[in-house]
Request: fold
Amino acid sequence: MTAHGARIKICGLTRPQDIEAVNAALPDYAGFVFAPGRRTVSLAQAAMLRQRLDRRIVPVGVFMDAPLDEVLAACSAGVVEAVQLHGSEDASYIEELKDACLVPLIKAVRLRSDGRPTHDIPHGADYVLFDGLVPGSGERAAWSVALRRYQKRFFLAGGICLANLD
Reply:
């Protein structure tokens, strides 16, 4: 945890050397991406990487519009201890997942350039993750407007660097 109480999550781990780097940095969370993309890992790959992950780091599974049984498989296998939903999952999906899997849920919300979310923020998640329009692009998201409007525990993503961590 940082001096300001913020928590850090590093995402997109795919290789043993990624785990070594994360273990050295000791963020609060580390993410395995199961959603389609260049950083996607299989459940078997994530399980192997998870075994090497420092136990002080919470492993997070990142999913996008995945069938519920896919998410539950990662939870029940012990590969992830938190779930991040990065698609169009609605409140009923979140409720069903929370009933079946007792791990913290993070719902990602993409922000327009004016800081407004691209869609309504569904209820039921434990945290919200505010991200830019193109997740994983490194482009800074317009967090300030969203943070003034939304009073839930949150993560920030999209263009985070040392210069804007304060």
User: Anything to note?
Assistant: The chain has a mean pLDDT of 83. The chain is about 30% helix and 20% strand. The two ends are 13 Å apart (CA to CA).
